[in-house]
Specification:
heterodimer, A: alpha/beta, Rossmann fold, Alpha-Beta Plaits, 2 domains, 6-stranded mixed sheet, 4-stranded antiparallel sheet, about 25% strand, B: mainly alpha, D-Maltodextrin-Binding Protein, domain 2, 4-stranded mixed sheet, 15 helices, 4 strands, transport (chain A), ABC_transporter-like_CS (chain A), ABC_transporter_ATP-binding (chain A)
Chain lengths: ~300, ~400
C-alpha cells in the first residue's frame, strides 16, 4: 500500500542523509518522506539534527552521503528555487522595507515584477503586516519580524515548504493564523516539513511525525502508528489494593502510580484480562482503561532518558 | 530564471539600497562642494597670493619700473606702490597690507619685511643694487659709457636648446593628475569597503541563508560587486564632470580636453581597479561575522591602497617618467591609481598602458576565482573569524 502511494503521490524524500561535523554525526542515515499535501512534524531535542537535515534539503549544507529527492528526481538548484525555507537563524536585510524585501525575494525565486508585488501585498495582508509594509525590518518587533520571515518563505508560492521552528516567537493569534496557512498550503498539495518543540501543537496539526535523536530517526509515522508501536498501557484504579500489588505481574511493567491509579505497560501478547483479574483479586476495581499516550509521552519513550 | 537575471536582481537591489540612502546623496553633494571650494580657492586666493606687494619710499621710488621687470625674470609678480611716509609703510608691513617696504638710495637699499624676504625678491633687489653700484664704478672709468656696458652685459646669456617643446600646461596637467589619483584612491577605498560591509551585513543578519537557498554564492557576490561598482562609477563620473566643468568655467583649467580625457581614463581604471580590489575586499569580509571585526580584516587590503596613493603622489610629482614609476604603474595593485596619473601627465607610453591593463585584467580573473572560492567557503560559517586556509578548503 505504501509503495503504491509513493508511486502515485509526489513526495519529498530524504534518503540516507549523513553529515558529520568533526567527530559529531549531526545526521546519521536520516531517511523519511513528506508526501505532497502532508503536514510533517519534525521533532527532536536541541542538537538532534533537525536543522542540519533541513539545511541539507535546501542545499545550504552539502551532505556527506545520501540524497534528497522531490517528485522522484534528485534536487538541483532550479528545483530548490521553488522551495520555501524558514531558516532556524532568522535573517532579513535589516534596513530594507518590508514590502521591498518580499518583492525582492519573490523575484529572486523567479516571479515577475507584477506577480511579485501582488504576492508580497497578499502575504503582508494575510499575516497582519499591513501597517508595517513600508517600515524597515529592523524597526519591527521580534514577533512582527518573524511574520515577515514567514511571508518571505511563503511569498513565491513554493512547491515544498521547509520551516525550522516556524511557531517559536509567535503570539497565540499568530500561531492560529500560521496553523491555518500551513493547513491551507498542505490542502493545496504542498508537502510541509516543519520542526517544533511544541509537541501538543505538532500532535494537533500534523499528519505524520518524525522523531530524531542524536542524528538518527528513532520514530516516524502518524501519531496513531507511533502509539501502536509503543505497546499497550493500561490504567487500573483498585482502591482496596495494597501498594505494590501490581509489581511482579507476569509480562507487565509499572510505569507510574498517580492518585492511586497504577499505569502498567504490557509486553507484546500479554492478555489485559489477566491484569484485570489480578486487580479484581485485590478488591473492587473502579477504573480499568487503555491509555492513549500523548505525543509528549511517545516522544519521551522514543528518545529514552538519555536525551 | 537565468543566472543573469538573478545577478541583475541582486545588483539592482544594491543600486536601489545605496542610491536611496541619504548618506550617499549627502556624500556626493559634499564631495562636489569640496571640489567647488577647491577650484574657487585655486582661482581667487592662490591667484592673489602670487602677487607680492612692495611699497617704495623716498629715493627707492625710482625703482618702480625696474623692480617689476627684474622681479618678473625671477618669477615674482611684484605690484609696486609708492609710500610717502616710511613709518606708515612699516606699519603697513606689520599689518600685512604690504609684503615688503623698500627705502634708501638705489645703491644701498633697505628692506623691511614681516619675517623673511622672499628669496627671488631678494635676488631681484640685490641685482638692482649691484647694477647701481656697477654703474657708479663704471662712471669712474673715463672712456666707458656705463649704460652701453650694462646693456652689453644684460644681452649676454647662455644659448638654450630644448629637446622637447616646452609644456606650458605642465602645472595644470600635474594638478589634474593628482586630482584623479586622489579621486580613484577614495573611490576604490570607499566602494571596496562597501563590498566588504555588504558581505558582512548579509552574514551577520543571516539573510544569506535564505539567499543561498535561492541563488548560488557566485551569483550573490557578482551581483553585489556589479551593483556597488555601478554606484561608484556614477558617483565618480558626476564628481569628475562637475570638477572639469567648474574648473574650465572659472578658468582655473585651460585644458578642458585633456582634463576630460583624464576623467574618461580615470573611469576606465576605476572599473579595472574596482574589480581587482572588490574580490579581495569581499573575500576578506566573508571571513568575519560581525561588523566590528571588519576593519581589522580589511587592514591589509586598505594598506595596499594607501601605499599606492602615497607612492602615486610622490612619484607623479617628482619623476613621472622614472623607472620606478614605470614599473610600479604596470603592477596590478598600483596600476589603477598610478597609471591614470601618468596618463594625465602625458607620460605613459601606449605600450605600458596596454601592459598594465592586461596585467590587471589577468589579476582580476585570478582574484575573482580565488576570492569567489574563499567567499563560498566562508559565507555560511558564523562565529569567530575563519582562517583563510579553512575558507579555501571550503
Amino acid at each position: 500500500m505504501l509503495e503504491i502511494d509513493a508511486l502515485e503521490i509526489d513526495a519529498l524524500e530524504i534518503d540516507g542523509v549523513c553529515k558529520r561535523y568533526g567527530d559529531v554525526a549531526a545526521c546519521d542515515q536520516v531517511s523519511f518522506q513528506v508526501r505532497a499535501g502532508e503536514l510533517f512534524g519534525f521533532v527532536g531535542g536541541n542538537g538532534a539534527g533537525k536543522t542540519t537535515t533541513m539545511r541539507v534539503v535546501l542545499g545550504v549544507v552539502a551532505a556527506d552521503a545520501g540524497e534528497v529527492r522531490w517528485a522522484g528526481a534528485p534536487l538541483d538548484h532550479a528545483t530548490r528555487r521553488r522551495f520555501g525555507y524558514l531558516p532556524e537563524e532568522r535573517g532579513l536585510y535589516p534596513r530594507m522595507r518590508v514590502l521591498d524585501q518580499l518583492v525582492y525575494l519573490a523575484e529572486l525565486h523567479g516571479f515577475g515584477v507584477n506577480q511579485a508585488h501582488r504576492a508580497a501585498e497578499d502575504w503582508i495582508a494575510r499575516l497582519g503586516l499591513r501597517e508595517h509594509r513600508d517600515a524597515e525590518v529592523q524597526r519591527l518587533s521580534l514577533g512582527n519580524q518573524q511574520r515577515v520571515q514567514l511571508a518571505a518563505a511563503l511569498v513565491h508560492d513554493p512547491e515544498v515548504l521547509v520551516l525550522d521552528e516556524p511557531f517559536s516567537g509567535l503570539d497565540p493569534l499568530a500561531v492560529d493564523v500560521l496553523a491555518a496557512v500551513l493547513r491551507e498550503r498542505a490542502g493545496a498539495g504542498v508537502p510541509v516539513l516543519f520542526s517544533s518543540h511544541q509537541l501538543d501543537l505538532v500532535e494537533r496539526l500534523c499528519d505524520r511525525v518524525g522523531i530524531i535523536q542524536r542524528g538518527r530517526m528513532v520514530a516516524c509515522g502518524t501519531v496513531d502508528e507511533l502509539r501502536a508501536g509503543s505497546g499497550t498501557t493500561v490504567v487500573v484504579h483498585a482502591p482496596g489494593a495494597a501498594p505494590g500489588w501490581a509489581d511482579g505481574l507476569a509480562g507487565t511493567t509499572v510505569v507510574g502510580v498517580h492518585n492511586g491509579r497504577v499505569r502498567l505497560r504490557l509486553a507484546d501478547g500479554v492478555d489485559d484480562q489477566a491484569v484485570l483479574a489480578a486487580a479484581l483479586a485485590t478488591g473492587p476495581v473502579r477504573e480499568f482503561s487503555h491509555h492513549r499516550p500523548s505525543l509528549v509521552e511517545l516522544y519521551r519513550d522514543a528518545v529514552g532518558d538519555g536525551s | 530564471m537565468t543566472a543573469r537575471r538573478a545577478v541583475w536582481l541582486i545588483a539592482r537591489r544594491e543600486l536601489h539600497a545605496r542610491l536611496r540612502t541619504r548618506s550617499f546623496l549627502i556624500g556626493t553633494a559634499v564631495s562636489v562642494a569640496v571640489l567647488i571650494g577647491f577650484v574657487l580657492l585655486q582661482s581667487t586666493v592662490f591667484g592673489a597670493a602670487n602677487v607680492t606687494r612692495v611699497g617704495l619710499s623716498g629715493q627707492a621710488t625710482v625703482l618702480s619700473g625696474s623692480l617689476g621687470e627684474e622681479a618678473r625674470t625671477r618669477g615674482v609678480d611684484v605690484r609696486a606702490s609708492t609710500v610717502r611716509d616710511p613709518v606708515a609703510g612699516e606699519a603697513m608691513v606689520a599689518d600685512g597690507d604690504l609684503d615688503a617696504l623698500v627705502t634708501g638710495p638705489p645703491a644701498a637699499l633697505r628692506v623691511v619685511v614681516g619675517d623673511t624676504l622672499d628669496e627671488n625678491l631678494r635676488r631681484a633687489l640685490n641685482a638692482l643694487v649691484q647694477q647701481e653700484v656697477l654703474r657708479a664704478q663704471l662712471a669712474a672709468v673715463e672712456e666707458l659709457d656705463p649704460d652701453q656696458v650694462l646693456a652689453t652685459v644684460a644681452d649676454a646669456g647662455v644659448d638654450v636648446r630644448s629637446l622637447h617643446a616646452p609644456d606650458a600646461q605642465r602645472d595644470q596637467r600635474l594638478a589634474v593628475a593628482l586630482v584623479i589619483v586622489a579621486l580613484l584612491y577614495l573611490s576604490l577605498l570607499l566602494y571596496g569597503t562597501m563590498v566588504a560591509q555588504g558581505v558582512v551585513e548579509e552574514k551577520s543578519s543571516r539573510v544569506v541563508e535564505i539567499l543561498l537557498a535561492t541563488v548560488r554564492p557566485w551569483q550573490l557576490l557578482l551581483g553585489k560587486v556589479i551593483g556597488l561598482g555601478l554606484v561608484g562609477l556614477a558617483q565618480l563620473a558626476v564628481i569628475g564632470a562637475v570638477g572639469v566643468v567648474l574648473a574650465t568655467a572659472t578658468e582655473v583649467l585651460t585644458i578642458p580636453g585633456a582634463a576630460l580625457g583624464t576623467l574618461v581614463w580615470g573611469l576606465f581604471w576605476y572599473l579595472l581597479g574596482y574589480l581587482f580590489y572588490a574580490s579581495v575586499f569581499a573575500a576578506a569580509g566573508s571571513l568575519v561575522s560581525r561588523q566590528e571585526e571588519t576593519q581589522a580584516v580589511l587592514l591589509p587590503v586598505t594598506s595596499v591602497l594607501v601605499l599606492a596613493f602615497v607612492l602615486g603622489l610622490g612619484l607623479l610629482t617628482r619623476s613621472p617618467n622614472g623607472t620606478a614609476t614605470a614599473v610600479l604603474s604596470v603592477l596590478p595593485p598600483f596600476a589603477p591609481i598610478l597609471m591614470p596619473g601618468r596618463i594625465a601627465l602625458a607620460e605613459a607610453p601606449a605600450g605600458q598602458i596596454a601592459l598594465a591593463a592586461a596585467l590587471t585584467l589577468a589579476a582580476v580573473a585570478l582574484l575573482a576565482r580565488l576570492g569567489g572560492r574563499i567567499y563560498a567557503g566562508a559565507i555560511l560559517r558564523t562565529g569567530p573569524r575563519i582562517p583563510l586556509r579553512e575558507a579555501l578548503r571550503g
